[in-house]
C-alpha cells in the first residue's frame, strides 16, 4: 500500500510539472549519489546548450520505478541506469552473462525493443554490487572470497540497500541460494547509513557499490565474487525515443557524456558530496567547468 501511494504521488508530481511547461525535460534518479550528480550534469548541459528547462525528481526508490515512469511518459531521462538492470525481471528467458559487452548489448537491444528507449553507451564508470567486510572481520578471519564467509555467516550482521533485498534475480534471496549462506541478521537501509553502521560497529558485511569512496576511507575489503553472482553494472544515460525525436539537441548533449567519467573520477565526485558535504548540483557544475564543458 505504501509503495502504491508513493508511486501515485511521484506520478502526480511529475504530471503537474510536465503540464506546467511543455519545454521542460523530466529527469529521474535513484536514492544514491552518482545518479544525482549525473542528473545535475545533464541538467546543466541541457540548459546551457538549449532553450529547454529541466526538472529533476530525486530519490525514486528503485530503477524499475524509473523505467515504469519513463514508459508512462512521466519521465524523459533516467540520469543513470546500469547494464545489469537488464537481468532484473524485465525480460523472459534472458541468458545471464557476466561479460560486460554482452550485458550492455542485451540492455541496449532489449530496452529499445520493449520500451523504445535509447540506452546510451557507458558513461565510463561501473558501479557494481560487491560484498565488502569491515576491517575487524578482515583482522579476525582474513576472508578472500565471498564463500569464505560461509562458515561464519551466522555470526555476521549484514546490511544492504533496501531495493537489493527485493530484487528477484540478483538480490538477497538469490544471493543466499547461490552461496548457500544466511547471516545472523540482514537489514535494508540507505547506502550512507550502511557505512555509518560499519563505522559504528553495528554491521560486519555490506553490499557496497564499487564506486563508493567510503570503502577506501573505512579500510574495508571487497571480497572476490568467486561464484560469479553479480552481473556487470556499467553506467549509462537512458532516454525515451519520444523526447529525443522532439528535441534532437538533447541527444547531442547526451552523446557528449559517453566515455566521459571513469570510476575513479566518479568516486571522487561522490566523496565531495557524501563525505565533504557539498551540494551535488555545485559539484556537477564545478566538474563541468574544470573539464571545459562550460565557459
Structural class comes to alpha/beta
Distance between the first and last residues' Cα: 48 Å
User: How many beta-strand elements?
Assistant: 10
Which H/E pattern describes the elements?
HEHEHEHEEHEHHEHEHEEHHHH
- Name the CATH homologous superfamily of the largest domain: Periplasmic binding protein-like II
Q: Count of helices?
A: 13
What spatial form do the alpha-carbon principal axes imply? globular
Poorly predicted runs of 5 or more residues: 1-6, 16-21
State mean pLDDT (0 to 100 scale): 92
Residue fraction in strands? 15-25%
Describe the structure.
With 295 residues, this protein is α/β, with parallel strands linked by helices. It has two domains: 2-126 and 233-290, D-Maltodextrin-Binding Protein, domain 2 (3-Layer(aba) Sandwich), CATH 3.40.190; 129-222, Osmoprotection protein (prox), domain 2 (D-Maltodextrin-Binding Protein, domain 2), CATH 3.40.190. Helices cover 45% and strands 16% of the residues. The chain contains 13 helices and ten strands. The strands form two sheets. It has a five-stranded mixed β-sheet with strand order 2-1-3-10-4, sandwiched between helices. Helix 2 links the parallel strand 1 and strand 2. Helix 2 packs across helix 11 (248-256), helix 2 (33-49) crosses helix 13 (280-290) and helix 12 crosses helix 13 (280-290). The chain is globular and about 60 Å long.
Secondary structure layout plus pairing:
Elements: H1 2-20, E1 24-28, H2 33-49, E2 53-57, H3 63-72, E3 77-82, H4 100-115, E4 117-119, E5 129-133, H5 135-141, E6 157-161, H6 162-166, H7 172-179, E7 185-189, H8 191-199, E8 205-209, H9 214-217, E9 221-222, E10 235-240, H10 241-246, H11 248-256, H12 263-274, H13 280-290
Parallel strand pairs: 1-2, 1-3, 6-7, 6-8
Antiparallel strand pairs: 3-10, 4-10, 5-8, 5-9
Helix pairs in contact: 2-11, 2-13, 12-13
